[in-house]
């Protein structure tokens, strides 16, 4: 059984857009599908342009009743990669992602891919980098989801935002990888939490928190019963999501002063290179049992869901100051979800 989306694509009507005003450049950035009487065929923008050149369709005027724009970047970040199965081992593993779908080509041909190995001595100190401002709301209804390739939490429209150098990114979801995807000075950690934020221009800011094995993580402690419920439901093919009710996202609102940052990509297909990464300088603690709980709902080929590190290709990693990875061994208060980047 392969990894990949555990959920069905939303109704096509949700993706219908006004395509009559699309520019040529817009088409190049999107995945286009069209519906016939009984099927939906997904093709890349380049395929559409080739067909147009051959007289198959018009690039400039397309029947809105027949064409559906699939925003594949948002679909993947929401736990759905256009229905294409991918995993972390075998014929659908990371080395093959680029060949699984035309929309995944960046996974093999991209030059700004993630994750990476961060070598502290090679990072550039940028004293002009400002603290990351997390303005998360006090309450928000949330859903624990088995995405097939990871376990995450989806939030509604008002979960809060991340402000980076005056630019606002809306907080949409967070998910875990184990082991960690980013590596610091050659060290791979037990887990990595990604807090995913979208800006109005469809760019993404991801806040990454690394975890070493040790004391239980307070957030995971609060989620333990729901994680167990999710694993049982997935095993019996009942549900792939569990309602969490109200999560106090205000508890994770902190100003983060010390971090690494670079430009990169999504770490799952389609590997789109539109992500600003912020890896916090403090490594948190998570128990072995909690790591196992994160892996329990996933199929065997996704238990270790970390993409291998990718080449820098000349990119420069910046940091707020010379950082030493700081471990937090003290037990945090149970009510604290995620504390500040550096004490």
TrEMBL record:
Q: Taking every annotated instance into account, which residue ranges of this chain make up the domain Alpha-carbonic anhydrase? A: 84-321
Q: Which UniProt keywords apply?
A: Lyase, Metal-binding, Zinc
User: EC number(s)?
Assistant: 4.2.1.1
Q: Which SMART domains match?
A: Carb_anhydrase
Looking up InterPro entries in the UniProt record yields: Alpha_CA_prokaryot-like (IPR041891), CA_dom (IPR001148), CA_dom_sf (IPR036398), Carbonic_anhydrase_a-class (IPR023561), Carbonic_anhydrase_a-class_CS (IPR018338)
An example molecular function term from Gene Ontology annotations: zinc ion binding
Q: What does this protein do?
A: Reversible hydration of carbon dioxide.
Q: Which family does this protein fall into?
A: Belongs to the alpha-carbonic anhydrase family.
UniProt name for this protein: Carbonic anhydrase
Upper classification of the organism: Eukaryota, Viridiplantae, Streptophyta, Embryophyta, Tracheophyta
């Amino acid at each position: 059984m392969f990894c990949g989306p555990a959920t069905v694509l939303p109704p096509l009507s949700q993706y219908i857009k006004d395509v009559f005003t699309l520019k040529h450049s817009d088409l190049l950035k999107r995945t286009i599908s069209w519906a016939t009487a009984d099927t939906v065929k997904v093709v890349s923008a380049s395929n559409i342009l080739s067909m147009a050149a051959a007289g198959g369709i018009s690039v400039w005027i397309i029947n809105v009743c027949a064409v559906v724009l699939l925003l594949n970047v948002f679909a993947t970040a929401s736990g759905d990669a256009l229905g294409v199965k991918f995993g972390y081992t075998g014929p659908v593993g990371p080395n093959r992602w680029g060949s699984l779908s035309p929309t995944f080509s960046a996974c093999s041909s991209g030059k700004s891919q993630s994750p990476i190995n961060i070598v502290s001595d090679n990072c550039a100190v940028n004293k002009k980098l400002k603290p990351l401002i997390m303005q998360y709301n006090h309450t928000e209804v949330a859903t624990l989801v088995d995405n097939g390739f990871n376990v995450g939490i989806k939030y509604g429209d008002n979960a809060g935002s991340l402000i980076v150098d005056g630019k606002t990114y809306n907080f949409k979801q967070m998910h875990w990888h184990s082991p960690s995807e980013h590596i610091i000075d050659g060290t791979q950690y037990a887990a990595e939490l990604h807090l995913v934020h979208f800006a109005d221009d469809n760019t993404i800011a991801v806040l990454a928190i690394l975890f070493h094995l040790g004391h239980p993580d307070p957030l995971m402690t609060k989620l333990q019963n729901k994680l167990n419920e999710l694993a049982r439901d997935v095993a019996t093919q009942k549900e792939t999501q569990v309602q969490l009710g109200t999560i106090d996202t205000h508890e994770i609102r902190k100003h983060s002063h010390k971090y690494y940052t670079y430009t990169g990509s999504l770490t799952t297909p389609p590997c789109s290179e539109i992500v600003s990464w912020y890896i916090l300088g403090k490594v948190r603690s998570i128990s072995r049992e909690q790591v196992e709980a994160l892996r329990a709902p996933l199929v065997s080929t996704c238990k270790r869901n970390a993409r291998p590190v990718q080449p820098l290709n000349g990119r420069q990693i910046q940091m707020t100051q010379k950082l030493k990875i700081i471990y937090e061994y003290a037990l945090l208060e149970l009510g604290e979800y995620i504390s500040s980047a550096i004490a």
